[in-house]
Every structure is written in structure tokens, then in C-alpha cells.
Specification:
The protein has 412 residues and is of the alpha+beta class. 33% of the residues lie in helices and 18% in strands. The strands form 3 sheets. The chain has an 8-stranded mixed sheet with strand order 1-5-6-13-12-11-8-7, sandwiched between helices. Helix 4 packs antiparallel against helix 7 and helix 10 packs across helix 11. The N and C termini lie far apart (44 Å).
Amino acid sequence: MPTAAVSGKMRRCRAERPATDSGRGLNPEMGIGRFMQSVHGRDDLAGPGIGNYEEVEKILPKGYRPILDRKETQKAIFEAKGYIEKHLCRELNLMMTTVPLIVDAESGINDMLDRDGSRTPVQFHISNDYNKHPIDAQVVQAATKWKRFALKELGMEMGEGICTDMRAVRKDYFLDHDHSAYVDQWDWERVISADQRNLPYLEQTVKKIWRVLKGAETHVHESFPRLKEKYPEMADKIEFIHAEEVLEMFPRLPRKERETALLKEHPAVFIVGIGWVLKNGHPHELRAADYDDWVTETRTKDGRVFHGLNGDILVWNPVTKRRHELSSMGIRVDAKNLRKQLEISGQLDSLRFDYHKGIMSGELPLSIGGGIGQSRTLMLLLKKAHLGEVSVTVWPKILKDICDKRNIHVLE
């Protein structure tokens, strides 16, 4: 369903005054250095999270009582996890595969997450063979680039793909209620054809993923009926809207507040076109230049020109009463758009890496892929207030103390 099919309805919710910012818009073709100078201080384009613990304390729910105890929670985690892996593979024709935790730093295969360089991987030296044959390694931040290599290496045919139980470390996150340094995702990738590089195919794929997530909700409700009692169920259908349309609806709000305002009216959305510069001179959010395609021109039914074949699945979380991102995904760059996005980002030197060479030469297959946050999804399905209730990782003492006050049992 093209975005125009729902955008008219969405525009009717919570009308905003028109923007009065008369500043010069940004040219998406400018280099990333000038681009970042222009956006500095204007929006939260890259760094996720809330930003300070005074705000975290305000947003954590008061009077919270977990529906499942810790033992039940562990059982429910694996009920949901098993269902999602099985049915995601069935819906998208994927097979489960192994995935690296560490990669060679010189390979260029690690994911830099955003194109501003704000989030860097954990790196360490392996003094192999008394430093005669050492390796400088990195802990993966995501398996995005590796998956495209894996499609080729495993001989995946058209319409086939892989799904991984990916683990990563993102050391530059601010640790709050739904961001942790430890990341777990269902990272998946599927081979597609050139004529499938379009918005309808992207939306068709998103609907299949949503069907799996809704099925997982039904599954855990059958096993743990108390989960149905207090909070509303997830929306039956997911709606599609372009980032430009969200900006038109809420021109005075920064990005995350735009998403929050939207989700209050439409509790499950896929925001399309993340990375391209919008009419206010800023992208909805920064995206890396070398995997999702955020430059391809698309047209709505009423003839408006937008950009991007990627996006995010976001939902309204009834426990935290906040926006809740579940997945980032998209149709991946082809050779033409890889070069264009690297040029926009001032990163053409990346073309020296094998991954980029493989795309430019056509050696690596065209693909669609994404990552579905496991702990984020489990947090939503099991009606939890904090990521630490479903994921074991490190948290600062200040956050653990706040959680204790709110009856939130963070796993350690």
C-alpha cells in the first residue's frame, strides 16, 4: 500500500500550525562535514536514548507491577523467541544461520550505524602467535554488511534469505529504559531482483513481519493469559507514512516528539524514507550510507516526490506510554545508489573495501534486510517497563536505583 493511501487520514489527526522557519534548506548533495555543521544542535539525528537520568526517572511508569515474575518471564522469553524465529523464516523464506560476534577491523565489514561517526565499535588487539600474526578485531555493532556477504557465500537463490540470532555491543548509547550497550537482534537478509527494488515490495515485506509479531503476541497470550488483562493488544494492521508526511503533520516538533505524537493516534506505523534531507533541511534521522537505500525517488498516488526505500517499525508502548522502535530495515543500495550516498556523505574512500567493491561490481546480490530488536520486542510482548527485565547486561548504579524505586526488577 503506497504511503498516500493512509497519509490523508493521518493528516487529520492533531493538526499543527504551519512551520515558520524561514532558514535555508539543506542540499542533500552537500558533503557530510558541512551537513553536520548545519544540523548541530537542531535535532537528535543520530544519538538514541533520552539523554539524562532526571528525564529517565520522569518517564518510568509509577505504580508499576510486572505481570509475570522473573521465572515466568524467562519461560515467556523463549516461547516468544522460538515462535518469532520459526515464523519469520516461514514468512520471508529464510533459514537460521550463525553470525559473527567479532570481525577484522581492516575488513570494513562492521556497521558504523550512522554516517556522522558518533558511534564507534569496541576494538581490541589479538596478539596471535606472539604478535607474529596479530589481528586487530572489532565487536560487531550490527551484522548488516556481513549478511550480504553471507547470501553470496551460502549460495542463496532469488527469494531466499538468512536470519541470525545476532549479538552486538554499542558502547556509545546512553543507557535508559530501552537502550543498552548489549544488543540482540533478529538480523535477516533476503535476495531480491532489480524489479523488486520498489516501495510496494518494501511494504509487502513489512506487513509479513508485522503478521509474525502479532502472531507472537497471540502465542504468548495463550501461554500466559494474564498478559491480556491490563493493557491493549497490538494493532491488527501496521500503517505506512513517509517521514516527510510526519513532518508536515507536526512541523514544530523534533523528530522523537513527532513520532510520539503520531503513535498516540496510530499505534503501529512504518515510517518510510529515513536518511534523506526533508523539507525542513534535516533528515528524519541519520542513516549509514552503505546499506539502506535512502536516495531512490518514489512517488505517491497524488504525484508527490519523496525519497527512500527504507524505514522503521514503531509502536505505541502502553506500559511506558512512549514511542517504541522495533525494527529498522530497508531495500539495500545497488551500485548506483551506493556511490551516490557515499558521495553525499563524503565517504567515497569506503569504495576501497571488499564489501563496497562487491556491490559496485555486482558480485554481491541485491537484497532487502533489517534487524528486529529482540529485547525491545520481548519488552513489548511481555508488558515490561524496562529492557533490563528481559535482557542481562550492565547498567549504571543510578539507573538501577531508579528502577528499584519503581518496582522494576533489572536482571544482573
